[in-house]
Amino acid sequence: MTIARAQPLFAEAELTKAHESLFEADMLVTDVRSLFFSRGDFATAARLKDIQARLADEVQAVERLIAACKPGVHH
């Protein structure tokens, strides 16, 4: 009996594109947050900081998926 290796859910190219999009979103949120902060709208700036944290979590999740796609990497 042989055990088949599971195919990844996403291709590495798709994950790389997702990573780039998330990174770009993070940069945009950072810029917008600084605008609200400089205008004294601390509540909105704090909300955007929360969004940044969630984006960072998503970036890390995609990075783990990309690493798992690499040959020789087994978790």
Question: What does it look like?
Answer:
With 75 residues, the protein is an all-alpha fold. It has one domain. It contains 2 helices and no strands. Helix 1 packs antiparallel against helix 2.
Gist of the model:
This protein is an all-alpha fold and 75 residues long. α1 packs antiparallel against α2.
Order of helices and strands: HH
Instruction: Determine the structural class based on helices, strands and strand pairing.
Output: mainly alpha
Question: What percent of the residues sit in helical stretches (DSSP H or I)?
Answer: over 70%
Overall form: elongated
Major sheet description:
none
- The share of residues in extended strands comes to under 5%
Summed over residues and divided by their number, the pLDDT gives a mean of 87
Number of helices: 2
Rg measurement, Å: 18 Å
Distance between the termini: 23 Å
Number of domains in the coordinates?
1
Total number of beta strands: 0
Task: List segments where confidence is low: pLDDT < 50 over at least 5 consecutive residues.
Answer: none
